Each structure stands twice: as structure tokens, then as C-alpha cells.
Amino acid sequence: MRTGYSSQQDRFRGLLAILAAGMLSAATVHAQLPGASVTYQGQLKSGGAPLDSTADFEFRLFDAAMDGNAIGTAVAINNVAVVNGLFAIDLDFGAAAFNGQARWIEAAVRSPAGAGAFTTLAPRQPVTAAPYALFSAAPWGTSGSNVFYSGGNVGIGTNTPQSALQVTGLIISGLAGVTNGEILLEDSGAITNNAGIRTNADGDLILRAHSSPGAIEFEVGNPESTRMVVLGNGNVGIGTTTPGNSLQVEGGIRVRGGTPGGSGVNNNGYAFGSAGGDNDSGMFSTADGLLQFFTNNVERLRISSAGDVGIGLTAPTARLDVEASRDVFSAPVMRMRNTNGGATGGHAFRAHAGTGESSMSTFTTWPASAIFADNNSSAGGSSAIRATTRANRAVSAYADTGVAVYGEALDSGGGGTGTAARFFGPVDVNGLLSKSGGSFKIDHPLDPENKYLSHSFVESPDMMNIYNGIIITDADGYATVTLPDWFEALNREFRYQLTVIDETDGPEFVQAKIVSGVSRNCFRIRSSAPRTQISWQVTGVRKDPWAEANRIPVEEPKKEGEIGKYRNPELYGHDRSKRINVGDTDEGQGRQP
After folding, report:
1. Which of 434-443, 514-523, 571-580 has the lowest mean pLDDT?
2. What are phi and psi of 453, to 5 degrees?
3. Chain centroid to CA 521: how far?
4. pTM for the whole thing?
5. What is the DSSP string of 454-486?
6. Which fold has domain 464-549?
7. Is the Cα dihedral 558, 563, 569, 573 positive or negative?
8. What is the pLDDT of residues 424-439, one digit of tens each?
9. What pLDDT is attached to residue 464?
């Protein structure tokens, strides 16, 4: 191979002829094995002499002879042996690169392989018809952009087709009556009286029975039997060949393991019912969106178009609206049970109430009751609501700004002397307890079977703690009272009272005084006579963090909504309509008129 060429273009002179030769050879190869690759065979010369070396090639595909757009990515083929100027290359741009539009190939070469820069050869070479085709046209014919074959039968899956088109020996049909882009597969006969399968220009698949009466029957089984029929009037029958409705099914229907059904439609919708008669038992829909459920020819439940469910009434106005006239003691209107006795965290019923609404209520005229229960029984031990628990809370209530638990004991006239709440066992209140009065009430010590004994609480405007005891002064008349070690941590503002106990009733009048106040949880007393018995009392105001944050206001104005009302209006000559929080009660709900 000589050097000193006038240009790189001259160095690889003859490559254009190589490309043309390679492209023409591709038709022969790929008529036997269709694909997207093209075989290039050609000759490289250097200075007029055949090249004996190696070469690297880069090929690019374009949609124009000059400039234009690149199609796909470049194909690089390296270290190609060139012997006596001859070489062969398989070039594959992919089938997607050839869509029927004209294509040009641009080639670049360098030799020896791996040395120097590539030289792009010009002009680009057009891809001719022979390598472009991915199949051999003969014996098919063409007419414009159409391809046809009229020399015999066509087989798919068989090499011995017996009809114009035979697919794996399973589909055999004649072609006739092609109009408006339709493909019609029909039995032999007049086009106006045919039956078969067709597709139209819209892509629809059509089962066609053009003759009168024009029914389409679906037959399966051995021997064959009609399983479904479509009549010319549009009625569809399953289990019957003479359907009288748009859809009529005779026999069992199972929907996800559902129930048997049959016929019976006399409204503008759909029906699934028993075979005992129209609307005997089943589910029925009307044109206005109503869904009805019947048993024994009587409607039992309906779902309105708005989604409200009604049981026992025809115009439900709640998500679940139940109405019944029955003895609720022997047959409840509604019963809910959780039969899983070992379940943890389960509920037979759970209700969540929104603002001003009730999750469950009975004859309610008052707002915001999550659960309302009314027990009219006078029998002892009965309860409107009863809750039991093995280890945790039997009843739990929470209120963000309102009242978590509200109790009121009233008779039908709004009065009464009943008990709003009763507890047996310790009661733990983590918060402020407000009351109109308080006392203890026990069985009378002297007559426990017939009487009670009650005492009133000691009240104070302060959070006061009271401590007392008896102490005897020493021979010098002094005594030190030692208080609990937490006394000063809990209390402040100490007050003292001392009383001398002198049962001798002698002529001397004995006195006592505090000689040093509380310090280090002790205070010191002195009496005017030695060995005097003294009753002492000391009080303190709580100063623990909770008390400091929750001082009880002795006087405060009433809040908006409470002004003009009373906690006990009957004591001021008013009826209970003036009572504060009367709107929070459910008086009258569920009571019989």
C-alpha cells in the first residue's frame, strides 16, 4: 500500500462501487431468510491497486442525499480483513429504520484498522429496491400500494391450504361482499341473505344473521344444543330460545357464589328473582336509579339513587333508615352481635359522631348524640347502657371542648329526685371537680339497717389543707410538733390554732402559744404550765404545680350562652328552660308520648 495520496478521498476511490455492489447482493441473501440486515461486498483500491490490509468502517443512514436527518444510530464495524481489495460486511440498521421512505447510506473508512481518522466518503449512496425488500415479491403481484395473490390458496400453519385462506386447518371461509372497508366472512349464497362474522371500518366485530327471522344461536356440547340465542328483535335468551325480555335467563345464576334466580321483569330496569312469579323474590332496579329487594312479593329493602338505605319505608332520608311496628321486647328492630368472644379490640357496634350529628339515635329531637339509649323498665338492675370489661375501661369518653359525659336524672315532667350517676368503688378524678354541694353518706353507726348518716364537706375559697393533733408540753412547758417531710413542699400561708385541754379545772388559767412557726416541717409550742395537753391545728394553702396552674376563681362572670340562665332555676322561681346546659340533655328522646 502506497502513501502520498493527493487526498483521503482519492485514497479510497472505488468505495462507491463497492456499496452499490453490496446492496445489490443483499436481495439474494434475504429472499431466503428475511431480516433487516444488508450484506455489503466490495473492493478497496489504493492508488489503483487492490488493498491488502485491515480497515474500520462507520455507516450512517439518512433520509436525504444531502443534509437531512439521521435514521437510528451509526453502525461501526472494525478490523475488517481486506484481501486483494475485497471485503464483505453484514450491515443492520434494524427493521424500524425502513418504513417505505427513501434512504441513503453515508460511509466512513480508515486503514489500517485502529490508525488515524475516518474519512467520510461522498456522495451518500441510495438504498436501492433490492436490499430494501424484506421478502421476495414473486409470486405475489402489486397494484399501486396494494399487494395481492390470485394464483392459488394461502395457508397459515399448513402448506396444503384447501381454500383461499386456511389457518391451521381450523378456519375455512369464503371471501365475498366487501363494502365500505368491511371484511365479510359468510356462507355461500346471496349477499342479502348471509350469515357469518364481519368487521367494519370502525373496528367492530359483528356476528351477522341477515336473513329472517335472523336469530344468532350459540351451540355447544355433544350432541350440539342451543345454549344462548339472540333474536332479531334484540332479546337475548340463556336457557331459552324464545326470550320475552331484553335478557331472559331460565335456570340458575351464580354471581361470585351467589343465589339462584330466574325470570320476572315488569319495570324499566333489571330483575333477578325466583321462578315463582314476577317480583316474587329477588332484586329489582328501576329506570330512576332505585334498587329494590323483595321477598314473598313484598318489598323489604330499597336503596335510593342518592345511596340512602331504607328498611320498612319507601323514602329513606338517612344512610340507614329503619322503620318497624313491632314489640321490641320480643323482636328488636335492629340487633348487632359480635360472636367472637376472644377478640381483642373488637366491637359489635362502633359509632363516630360529627359536629351536630348523631351516629345512632332513637326518636331524637336534640342534637349531637353519638349514642342514645332509653330504658323505660322499672325493674331493678336494668340499664339503658351497660358496659363491662375484664381489665381495661368499661366506658371511655372524650370531649375536645364540650362535655365528655353528661348525666341528668329527670322524670317525664322535667323534675325528679333520681341519681344522675352512681359509682361503687374508688373514683379517680384527674382534674378540677366542681359541684353545688358535697357530703359523705354512710350507714348510720347506731342503726345501719334503717338509717343513713351524712356530713357536709368543709368548703373554703382557698385550696386549703388541714392538719391537727394533740401534744403534751414538757417540764419546761415546751413541745415541738413534727409535720410530714413533704409539708412545706406542698403548703404555704400557714394558719395556727391551739386549745389547752385542762381537765383538772384548777384555779390557774393555763395558756398556750406558738413560739416558732413552721420551719423544716416543725413548729414549737409553749404552755404557761408544764406538762399541759394541747390540741393543735395548722392549715396551709396548696402550692404544688397543679394547684398553682388551676386556682379556683372565687367569683367569675358567666360565659356567653350562660348569661340569663341558672344552675338551679327552680330555686329562683324559674322553670328548667332557664337551666344552664339544658341543650346538652336528651330529655324526651325515645320516650313514649
Report:
1. 434-443
2. -125, 130
3. 63
4. 0.43
5. EEEPP--SS-EEEEEEEEE--TTSEEEEEPPTT
6. Immunoglobulin-like (2.60.40)
7. positive
8. 788 888 777 878 788 8
9. 94
